[in-house]
Amino acid sequence: MLVRDFIHAALYHPRNGYFSKTTTSGPVGVLEATIKFNQLQGRKAYLQHLNKIYKQSHISWFTPVELFKPWYAHGIAEAILRTANFSVPLKIYEIGGGSGTCAKGIMDYVMLNAPPRVYNNMTYISVEISPSLAEIQKETVGQVQSHKSRFRVECRDAADQNGWGDVQQEPCWVIMLEVLDNLPHDLIHSKNQALHWEEVWVEKQLDRDAPVELYRPLQDRLIKLCIEILAEDINGSVNRLTSVARSILSKVFPKPQQCWLPTGCLKLMEALHSSLPKMSLIASDFSYLPDVRIPGVRAPLVSAKVHGHSVDYESYLDAKGDADIFFPTDFWLLERIDHYCSGGMQPCQKNPAKGRKKRRTITLDTSAFMEEFGLPSKTRTKDGYNPLLDDFKNTKFYLSVPTYNIK
């Protein structure tokens, strides 16, 4: 199978996938109570409180929307309300809604801060691939009785275009929080810098415990399209001088190269733009990851919890449903994929701004987004330390809305 199919099975297999495990030992945590940041002295007190929570819960990971509830979700809701078209009913899709904390937070905010007709006519749809998480989302949102009639979960793969049904021409919002990092990626390989790229496949062999990699000529549509969208920047080349230097080095010191391609993101964006052509998008994710051991441009972290401690794997092939596989998001490439899937640029076009833009896009640091749309005072400790603004330097928000001034 292709690497993306191996990763998809390791994360999302109905029985053995990482996100399909029961939540008592699974990866997605739910905080019982909101953290009262203004009662904590500073960073040391916050980290001690966080450590205590993790030990009590036996959970691998609390998402930012969970740690900073309800304020994180309220910031997203405010961004939506400032730019939503209220001449049509508000419709929000959330991809991979986790425990439902974001959905509840947004619906709470709309109920309390928007005109009554906006809340009364709104629809919030969670597209969730995990049946166990789907049930938890229903419970979380259902804590507010009036939310129940406005919220539903569709248990399916959002990247499968068939699941979306007919094209929906009405404006809507799509939210993806920490989704891009867990989307399957493909891997391409070159024996040295001067040779062509090859697809990487994974094969289970009878005489080996672990699967092995095979290299084949480029044939897969998503892989080839992703390479075209990357154009000349497939190796992360900064400029022509860097490219020339690498060409010289490749002849003197030839070495294997690996490059990870966000083909899962490309497939999802194709499905979204085909089915929801007037969607507005808010996505948040990691822009880089520290201490990555796996080789290659945009390589993932593969990490598991063993006896309460994080253990990082040396290879993605070691992940068999017990480890998270998460990638850094290349926001420059995400923007190119977004423009391409909306029909706003050609695959090899170097600058989408020179084309006929169908999207207005911006990438913001999490701190900038929350200072603009959120309530930073709510996550500030006594001495002024603010973990939401100070600790998430490696996360960004991507906002993309359709332009309506084109023929």
Automatic annotation (TrEMBL):
It catalyses: L-arginyl-[protein] + 2 S-adenosyl-L-methionine = N(omega),N(omega)'-dimethyl-L-arginyl-[protein] + 2 S-adenosyl-L-homocysteine + 2 H(+). Coiled coil: none annotated. It is found in: Mitochondrion. It comes from the Eukaryota. GO terms for molecular function: protein-arginine omega-N symmetric methyltransferase activity. Its EC number is 2.1.1.320. InterPro entries: NDUFAF7, NDUFAF7_sf, SAM-dependent_MTases_sf. GO terms for cellular component: mitochondrion. Keywords: Methyltransferase, Mitochondrion, Transferase. Pfam families: Methyltransf_28. It is an enzyme of class 2 (transferase). One of its GO terms (biological process) is methylation. Belongs to the NDUFAF7 family. Arginine methyltransferase involved in the assembly or stability of mitochondrial NADH:ubiquinone oxidoreductase complex (complex I). This is Protein arginine methyltransferase NDUFAF7. It comes from Beta vulgaris subsp. vulgaris.
